[in-house]
Write a structure and sequence with these properties.
Elements (H helix, E strand, L loop, with lengths): L5 E2 L1 E8 L3 H11 L2 E3 L8 E2 L5 H14 L18 H44 L7 H5 L6 E6 L14 E7 L2 E8 L1 H13 L3 E2 L10 H32 L2 H17 L4 E2 L3 E8 L5 H9 L5 E3 L11 E2 L10 H5 L12 H15 L3 H14 L9 H15 L20 H29 L3 H21 L6 H19 L2 H24 L1 H23 L3 H35 L26
Antiparallel strand pairs: 1-12, 2-10, 2-11, 3-10, 4-9, 5-7, 5-8, 6-7
Helix pairs in contact: 1-8, 2-3, 3-6, 10-12, 10-17, 10-18, 11-12, 13-14, 13-16, 13-17, 14-15, 15-16, 17-18
Length: 608
């Protein structure tokens, strides 16, 4: 276990062009590969220029995707192909589109008619108004024309021409307008309602005059439409099989993934050279993945090219990985920076629990984190936060805002506020000191350990001496020794007296910053006091109701308020303290993040 992130390992894989697609799919399946094209030999590009062909495929996809069969991508579809062969497949896809267009147009018309019939049925069943014979309205003309519009709840004020008869109906989905008038006025009404985003509903012909009979006729028509839709869908499926659409779509989906995610890899007539980075630092996972599916390839791990900056891999144990989120808020640590995820996994729950100490409320957060961690990964942080809140709840003797159910194992916050504030500042001193020490590790990783020990180590002594002098005035001598150490060491490192002057200028800024950061941790105790005060207020409101039911109702709503309000505020404060009081000492976030090659969408796993 180390605080230093690992640099991704460079790999080079020689394979034959025939299996290149499957090899790339296999590498993507591991989730441990980031491709980067590189070759020291003269070679052509392994991937042809598919962009022009894929543009045509994209146009067809935007229009017809809803009518295509499901795509199950097979990486073998990327066996050696030329642009001409893929162009031929595009032409086959276009030929399918020509034959499918009449079926799709009929299908769209049927689905539109079905939607109108369903909405009209709901209107007839719900509306209390006396409606005329809709069949007569739909068949009128040329002297008169009729319209039925769905206005919606928020439609603009109606402007109906004077000679147009109309009635506004209330339906399940909002308001509707039924109108009858001369063609010129109906045309004006059409323009007005179209601008108001009203939706026209077709009036079917040959409906019986009675409301019940009309509903029955519409239901019968919907059943007939469903049958015709199934027939057209079956015809489309048969047409897709006849044109070999599943295989064509699988190939284009895979090629689209290749063009989007895979760089122009070097290749000869028969072989391809796959290069890049892997988070599999031992190299075993890549070899096993290729062997498991029987793919040919010669894999080795040479030193990376000097012109490339290796991506950084954060290799933390499972329990600490959720806390990498804090680190990534400032970027990715470089290879010579510290990855503080392990430390944050202790510090963040500690601060959160201190400010939110309650056994019952912590248990609620714990259960919420366990229940929602898969749906919302960020909420995994509620699990350690809830556990810490439970632990501090026992320390403070608080259960769902009540302090009369459990004895406090340490103290009641409102009873000893000064002790609470002093403890929170002590935690801050430890966190800030830890940040200064991490800066020392980074200097050592950069080969500058000597300069840190000569100068900046004195800053640590100075800071601790100043803090200790609050309790013991004699510790001021330690602070003076740290000051002399820092200034004299800076002059030695700079090999000039000017270094001492720069150190004094830096000390003025850094020293003030350290004091402010230390005092800032008093907010941890202040929020613990605020939480205890709000809990006491909730219990007081419940007792003031004068009834058992009122007490428990007030307690329940008060705890919900505390969970929602204080939980959010304490989470924000924890994040702020970690980012601006701890990370500021050492974390620069200048690393290159490792971005694994994503697997093709819709591809079935190549191996288990």
């Amino acid at each position: 276990m180390t605080f230093r992130p690992a640099a991704a390992r460079w790999f080079e894989l020689l394979t034959d062009r025939e299996h290149l697609g499957r090899v790339l799919g296999c590498l993507a399946d591991t989730g441990a590969v980031q491709l980067e094209a590189y070759s020291s030999v003269d070679a052509t590009a392994a991937l042809p220029d598919y962009a022009r062909v894929l543009e045509g495929y994209g146009q067809l996809a935007r229009r017809y995707r809803a009518y295509w069969p499901p795509v199950h991508v097979d990486a073998a579809a990327a066996a050696e192909r030329s642009v001409d062969s893929v162009q031929a497949d595009l032409e086959r896809l276009q030929a399918w589109a020509v034959e499918a267009d009449p079926l799709i147009e009929t299908l769209q018309a049927l689905e539109g008619e079905r939607a109108s019939a369903g909405e009209l049925t709901a209107l007839l069943e719900r509306s209390a108004a006396d409606l005329p014979d809709l069949a007569l309205l739909s068949g009128c003309g040329p002297t008169l024309e009729s319209r039925l519009y769905a206005l919606g709840e928020a439609a603009a004020p109606l402007v109906v021409p004077p000679r147009t008869l109309h009635v506004v109906l209330a339906g399940e989905r909002g308001r509707y307008l039924l109108a009858l008038g001369p063609p010129d006025e109906v045309a004006q009404l059409d323009e007005h309602l179209t601008a108001a985003r009203a939706r026209p509903i077709a009036l079917p012909r040959h409906l019986p005059p009675g409301r019940g009979e009309a509903v029955a006729a519409l239901s019968q028509r919907v059943e007939e439409i469903d049958r015709q839709v199934q027939e057209r869908r079956a015809a489309l499926d048969a047409l897709a099989e006849r044109h070999g659409l599943p295989a064509i779509l699988a190939e284009f989906a895979f090629l689209d993934w290749l063009v989007t995610n895979v760089p122009q890899l070097p290749a000869t007539q028969h072989f391809a050279w796959v290069t890049g980075w892997t988070s599999d630092l031992e190299g075993a996972a890549l070899n096993q993945a290729l062997e498991r599916v029987g793919l040919p390839g010669l894999l080795h791990f040479p030193e990376p090219p000097r012109s490339f900056d290796a991506p950084v891999v954060l290799a933390n144990p499972r329990w600490a990985r959720p806390f990498e989120m804090f680190v990534r808020l400032l970027g990715t640590p470089g290879a010579d920076e510290a990855d503080p995820s392990l430390l944050v996994a202790v510090i963040a729950p500690l601060l959160f629990g201190f400010m939110f100490g309650d056994v019952g409320q912590g248990a609620v957060l714990l259960v919420a984190g366990l229940a929602l961690r898969k749906t919302y990964p960020a909420l995994r942080l509620l699990v350690p936060g809830g556990l810490s809140a439970i632990a501090f709840g026992f320390a403070f003797g608080s259960v769902f805002a009540r302090e009369d159910l459990l004895p406090a194992l340490w103290l009641h916050p409102l009873g000893q506020p000064l002790t609470l504030l002093a403890t929170s500042i002590g935690i801050g001193v430890a966190v800030i000191t830890l940040g200064l020490v991490m800066d020392g590790f980074e200097h050592a990783w950069r080969g500058a350990a000597r300069s840190w020990w000569l100068s900046r180590a004195g800053l640590v002594v100075l800071y601790l001496g100043l803090v200790a002098s609050v309790l013991t005035p004699a510790a001021g001598l330690v602070a003076l020794a740290g000051l002399a150490w820092f200034v004299a060491g800076a002059a030695i490192v700079a090999r000039s007296a000017a270094g001492a002057g720069r150190a004094l200028a830096e000390l003025a800024e850094t020293g003030l910053q350290l004091v402010v950061n230390t005092v800032s941790f008093a907010r941890v105790g202040a929020f613990a006091l605020a939480h205890a005060g709000l809990s006491a207020a909730v219990v007081g409101v419940g007792e003031a109701t004068g009834s058992t039911i009122g007490f428990w109702v007030a307690l329940a709503f008060g705890n919900l308020l505390i969970l929602a309000l204080e939980g959010l505020v304490v989470g924000i404060q924890t994040t702020r303290l970690v980012l601006f009081e701890f990370f500021i000492r050492f974390l620069r976030g200048e690393g290159r993040p490792f971005k694994p090659l994503p697997p093709p969408q819709g591809r079935e796993p190549m191996h288990r």
